[in-house]
Amino acid sequence: METKDPKIRTRFPPSPTGWLHVGNVRTALFNYLFSRHHNGALVLRIEDTDKERSRKEFQDDITEQLSWLGLSWDECYRQSERLEIHKTYLRQLLESGKAFYCAHSKEELETEHKRQMEERAIPRHICGQRDEGRESGVIRLRNDTDVTLSFADRIRGDITFDPQLLGDISIARELESPLYNFVVVVDDAEMNITHVIRGEDHIPNTPKQLLIQQALGFSRPIYAHLPLLLGADRSKLSKRHGDTAVRDYRAAGYMPEAIVNFLALLGWNPGTDQELFTLEDLVREFTLEKVQKGGAIFNEEKLAWMNRAYLRSLSIEQLASNLTPFIEQAGKKDLSTDFIKRIAYVEAPRLSRLKDVETNLPFYTETSVYDSTLLRWKGTQDYTEIIGHLKNVRQLLCDIPEADFYDMHHIEAVIMPYATAHSRGNVLWPLRVALCGSEKSPGPFEIIYVIGKTEALQRIDKAIKLLDT
RNA sequence: GGCCCCAUCGUCUAGUGGCCUAGGACAGAUGGUUCUCAUCCAUCAAACCGGGGUUCAAUUCCCCGUGGGGCCGCCA
């Protein structure tokens, strides 16, 4: 059993350069689960040091989607507001000679890199200007370490690097513009981050950050590198794999609980057969020891299955209110709440995503034009027989009091004996087609239940008329 | 190319030397229920990357291959 350590602090540091995507959310989730499991704190840090690419709408998207998913944070910072702190440490390194200005041009560095690749040499920049005392250019950390760098990853064990392969690490474009590896180290230390839980694509950054930490005299946090989220081709999940933004899944009608549950199981599981977890369950069960090492493919079919499970756990009232915006979006804005509740009731077993409601919506809200031949069961039924059945069923429906139309099973109980007596297909197929005008649809009782007595009678009359002419 | 990480059914995974004729879930196939669609129920098919060790015994430990991935920015 792990002990609860209130001093544990984790962080989630997205850069606001695109819509928050599911890979980021998985990282955020694991940080959330770990910190909450230990009664610790989660810091949200907007990494907006790249002024060119950072945008306010993306930053808003981060907080909006995290909130929607139920992932809360305890503190929030914007890196761009911490420039003075970063500059202080930058000056410290410059003054102590641990960092220096490198005035080589981009072109020069590019040429050097190209040559190194061609010569199969180590791609690194060991700057010849270390001791020239220049006062402008890129600020680099002097790297003359020759001892092997090593850190204990909580998920992968010891990972070692040869620091000589790194060259002099760039830490700022200029004094006013510090770079990622430097800022991360300073902020993690300043914010007392105890556990750095991030994607394994950051493993190569770790030795650089270790070096910067040492130069600054900071203590080292515990690292845990998560397996990557993969696309179907097993490469790192990205935009080219299709919709990966949380807002897209939200717009399609995935439940936040399903997304969280699904993401948690990508790279982690408690070692049991349980698949459905609330966020509280996850917080209670989560440990880094159970985190997987290999990358996991983001399989939308399983997400859809899980979403179905969550949709079906909703009450009709809850489902109806979740469905309402999607029904409105499909162009049906004035439906009564009772009507929507009846749609929710019959659609519940058919929905993978809330947006799927638009598939059958026309059956409930519109009358359709169809060919009279569609009314024939198996395509061969006699018209006069169909007319007879429809008229009889119509009469049965007429005799049901309006109030009983609010019970689907009552409607079924009235019509079913008649249908059975005349072979169900002979009665129910034409009835259903009369009601919806389509080959495939929900059952006749379901449609009648949704549209109500008056509308049902009208549609049956219309079908009878169609057959009569 | 260099460095680093990883490796059980198509996919997500259980499995920490014998309980494994390898378990579950999604997807798939078949059958049943059924007026169509969906739901639901039952059944089936499907994996330990290869080769060496260690051991009485390896999916599990070690090594080497192979395969996959990540990173090599004055992006984060």
UniProtKB/TrEMBL annotation:
Extent of motif 'HIGH' region: 14-24
GO MF term list: ATP binding; glutamate-tRNA ligase activity; tRNA binding; zinc ion binding
Pfam families associated with the record: Anticodon_2, tRNA-synt_1c
CDD domains hit by this protein: GluRS_core (cd00808)
Nucleotide-binding among keywords: yes
PROSITE patterns with a match to the protein in the record: AA_TRNA_LIGASE_I (PS00178)
Major subcellular site: cytoplasm
Biological process according to GO: glutamyl-tRNA aminoacylation
SUPFAM superfamilies (UniProt xref): An anticodon-binding domain of class I aminoacyl-tRNA synthetases, Nucleotidylyl transferase
GO terms for cellular component: cytosol
Start and end residues of each Aminoacyl-tRNA synthetase class I anticodon-binding domain: 318-464
Family: Belongs to the class-I aminoacyl-tRNA synthetase family. Glutamate--tRNA ligase type 1 subfamily.
Function noted in UniProt: Catalyzes the attachment of glutamate to tRNA(Glu) in a two-step reaction: glutamate is first activated by ATP to form Glu-AMP and then transferred to the acceptor end of tRNA(Glu).
Protein's recorded name: Glutamate--tRNA ligase
